[in-house]
Amino acid sequence: VALLSGCAAKKNVWGDPATGVTLSYRLPEDKPLRYETVIDQSQKMDVMGRSRQFGYGRTIGFSVQSEGATEEGQQLAVTLGAMTVRMEGPRGEGRREIKEVEGKSFEILLSPAGEELSLSGAGAISFELPSGARQSVEADFLALFLNLPATPVVVGDTWASTERIIDEALGSPAPILLQYVNTVEGFEVIDGKNCVKISTRMSADVERSLEPPYNAPLKALHFVGGVVGNSNWYFDYEEGILLRKSVALRASGTLSTGAINP
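Now predict its structure.
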């Protein structure tokens, strides 16, 4: 739908890259948007003087359909598609396709600035990791959309934001608060769409006590470390749509162990 046309198009609602572009989410109601998120995470742990390297990856296909606006934002219906999970550790690599979540749906209430105000039904949809543990899909959608700045931006502008994520692969549902530093890298045409490219640096300190999984002979585990990462976002500022993103995270820390179970 064209908001403005002809000569009026020079005075559009989003501005222009030279003087500043206003960013806000305005997902269309007439068609679903299809996405695929690829997550690649590595983790290095020092356990009792021994170093271990772990890898964890996930590919998720899904569609997002706007169901209309509310006073707070847009109500979005998310339908899950194909999902693949990969885990790599000292004993090798495990990979599997997740069929149990395909076709299931939940809802997100999204503010114009990209804040996920609520996720309804996502916590009830879970899948089995190659390790045997189960994880909710909610962890993948808490920070699906980038939080956008309140003022128009030009190349070089930065803003800070915070996202709450849950990494149940670490054995605990406790949230991790990721600190974001977002930077406007430039303006590009992607798949025929006028987009702003935003790079993000992410970091968080993590400290938690974990319950040993799989009936391990350890009474307690304590993890101290951090998470760092970066991501690239392409946002169609004319239509108000997240077009593409990629995320890479790296976690490192020390895992101390408690007493041995009899």
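The radius of gyration is 20 Å.
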